[in-house]
Design a protein that fits this description.
homodimer, alpha+beta, BirA Bifunctional Protein, domain 2, Rossmann fold, Translation Initiation Factor IF3, 3 domains, eleven-stranded mixed beta sheet, 14 helices, 35% helix
């Protein structure tokens, strides 16, 4: 059936776009053959990674006082249009349901995001200061009618995310939540998934429709392009007022709560994880997220087949008992084929067991990222694997940090900015303003250098100096700019 | 802020409909105020139950060789219409997207179910007998444009389910899967969630559109009405052929695989769980599914406040360490209010700790279902709770079985059937036929007795005897009939 020896060998550095498209198909992460633009199929290998991501993210959210809810996937037109900036920002991207089939109901939109659903209920649920903070999230599929070219997992018309909606009594508390959201991105996306990022407070012209301000998490892809991962927003109070959400404080005074929202997108984040860690031979999955953490390959040896099978079953049971995801590949493929296949899929550890290993009470362990083989005692295997898995993830993170550290270049003038961008770096430079008056200079950069002004640091204050390299006015802010998809 | 002492005391037996509506609101399971018919909000208390249900169901599916995938929420009209019986059955209930916003794409439906998405891909994924069986599932929100009156969780226009789609080389294997699906419903819905059911092979006129046959799981609600929980289907081969899904067998011969699907719906199943176990004072949640399994109420005692707080924190940490969901209610409400609140929410165990308990190194444990209080040593509390939790769930299941056992009545004639139905029972009787020719008698029963012929046992053979009580023809099958919503 057209089975051919597949090899994967594409330079991630030189041909990232090809590498990305090919590995998603070869490693069976996604399937692009569904036939509707921007709606992709996520195959088991991808769906199991996303499932693990959801569990980790949801645990982190619950540990920080968020509770789960489930909102309808449709939003009535009246809700959606209640806040003018929000509707202005999202309306062009909305899928509407055919009015002929909703039977006299109000016109319904497929949710592009769910502020206007949550706020409808916060109007009922928030009564007094005792109800605050109210911190909720949902895991949901959301829909954006993208007109730009879609890219698998990166820009699609349906995606799978988590959205939090938090309400506070004071602006100070809400702003602290925005910082907490940045910390969560750091704790989960960086320190567990191994994807470093720049927390960027967006320029005023690029914030979330309905927000006072937005902090996005910009990740540098292997080709130097920047993509936004979770963003967090402080919501404008007139958005909250439009839904009549209010509370009575300790002094019986009616007030409007301050709201924030945060949107880590699992499907899009998986794109960064795969791109970040992969190498020219395919995926290199973090140990924590790999659907198969250890693949056991029994080696030849028909003479002692039953002894071997028993040993393999015993090891498998031991690992499973310690919640290690293990798979035995006892198919009739040649060992070389199996090795290649599981390497390409990104499995962290391959365990080979044959005659020699059986005799010595050990296994041979191949590690995906270093490509090294070592002999490991059969005693305490689960403990050994867990320790090696932790070290493996640390290496992945260290390597990602190294790449990321090289990714930002300080620039003084237009020529330096251009040079940095052309060599696939993010440029950092002093800039006139991140307020409305800076937009013209940003547009110039977009047109001349095909790069986007990402904003200023959202987690710390970086001082500007000198003049804006575009308009020559006194620089007020230190900004970052990068190319994006 | 209108805080009033709430009490819950509605007879579940006499006023089930009121009980159900009120408890969903009072226990904060769902919220009906979203304003779009049939689209409900599931609040944290409900969402956390559903989350636990999903985890248990997904584990069971993986343990039986199913792998997870994620399909698009939209289905192109061409896919949807490829199989005439399927489209005929579902078309009236489909939400279509407004064609003006899909930009020249094919007309898109919101998935009412995903056969026509999975089969599109099985066409690519299934090549050879080596690919079989292929067993996949997804957790998904699906949409049915219900025109009948909707009921929270029971009949809604969006619901949250799991759907499996399994492909086999032979009809025998596929039929074995249908039986395995019934076993899974038994293992999970009955033996873990405590909801007994009748596996009913539907009459031909009531099967899934596109199926050879359907086995539904009928649950008897407290008011004697029957609702369908998971159903499993053997799919007709021309449905599979319409998607050109085929495989090459060992002898290089091209064949059409046999497909099955199974659809446990978490939101609807929660309705049965809540209805099954609740009592006149509110919810009684299974220990396994309760968002809070133990609520700790520190009792008064300002003199030893710090000692008490330390003891409570220590117990909480111990329980959490053993993955027991625990909550400390140290709000300033009166103890009686707290007791009432957590009883109404269905928390299995309330742990009271005060001066007496501290002195004796024990806690007072109130158990929700029996309403008994016992003193329990503070030593090995997690172990004690786990054991009591297992016993508690066993009691719930035994009680459900007892109710269920009373629910089916053997009937010989029309009068007996009517009597059984009128007293809120399911009637079992010999019947002319579950094939096309029996439909007229079923319609008669529907019209005259407002009851539905549910079908014949799907898991075993029950012999018919005598004549059909409706038409008088020789009875070929033993059927069940019940009232439904």
């Amino acid at each position: 059936m057209g089975k051919k020896k597949t090899t994967f060998n594409i330079s991630k550095k030189d041909n990232f776009s090809e590498w990305y498209t090919e590995i998603l198909a070869k490693a069976e992460v996604t399937d692009m053959r569904y036939g509707v633009k921007g709606f992709i199929v996520i195959r088991p290998w991808g769906a199991r990674i996303i499932d693990k991501m959801y569990r980790i993210y949801e645990s982190a959210l619950r540990a920080t006082g968020h509770d789960v809810a489930m909102m309808p996937a449709v939003i009535p037109e009246g809700n959606f249009k209640r806040e003018s900036k929000h509707v202005e920002g999202f309306a062009p991207d909305v899928f509407w349901l055919d009015e002929n089939c909703t039977g006299g109901d109000e016109k319904l939109a497929l949710r592009p995001t769910s502020e206007t659903a949550f706020y409808e209920l916060y109007n009922f649920w928030i009564r007094s200061y005792r109800d605050l903070p109210m911190k909720m999230y949902q895991r949901a599929n959301v829909f954006r009618n993208e007109t730009k070219a879609t890219r698998p997992l990166i820009r699609s018309r349906e995606f799978h995310w988590i959205e939090t909606h938090d309400a506070f009594a004071t602006k100070k508390d809400a702003e602290a939540q925005v910082q907490d959201d940045i910390v969560m991105t750091e704790e989960v996306m960086h320190k567990i998934f191994g994807v470093p990022f720049l927390p960027m407070r967006r320029p005023q012209w690029d914030k979330f429709p309905g927000a006072v301000y937005t902090v996005g998490s910009d990740v540098i892809m292997p080709d130097g392009k920047v993509i936004q991962q979770p963003s967090t927003h402080l919501i404008e109070q007139h958005f909250v007022k439009a839904f009549d959400v209010k509370f009575v404080d300790e002094k019986e005074k009616e007030k409007t709560p301050w709201l924030t929202c945060y949107g880590p997108c699992m499907s899009r984040m998986m794109a960064s994880i795969l791109a970040q860690h992969g190498d020219d031979n395919g995926l290199v999955l973090p140990y924590t997220l790999a659907p198969v953490q250890v693949v056991i390959v029994p080696m030849g040896l028909t003479a002692h087949r039953s002894q071997l099978t028993a040993a393999v079953e015993d090891i498998k049971a031991q690992l499973l008992h310690e919640y290690i995801d293990v798979k035995v590949d006892d198919s009739d493929k040649r060992p070389g084929e199996k090795f290649f296949f599981w390497e390409m899929k990104g499995v962290p550890f391959r365990m080979e067991i044959g005659e020699k290993e059986l005799e010595n009470d050990e296994v041979t362990l191949f590690t995906r990222d270093t490509k090294e083989k070592v002999s490991v005692s059969i005693r305490d295997l689960p403990e050994t694997i867990k320790n090696l898995g932790a070290e493996y993830d640390e290496r992945l993170i260290a390597r990602a940090n190294e790449f990321f550290g090289e990714g930002v270049v300080d620039c003084k003038d237009k020529a330096e900015i251009k040079k940095a961008l052309d060599s696939g770096k993010v440029a950092r430079f002093s800039f006139c303003s991140a307020e409305k008056e800076g937009e013209e200079c940003a547009e110039f950069i977009e047109k001349e250098l095909q790069a986007r002004v990402m904003g200023t640091r959202g987690d710390l204050n970086e001082k500007a100096s000198g003049k804006c390299p575009i308009c020559g006015a006194k620089a007020k802010v230190k900004v970052y700019a990068g190319k994006s998809y």
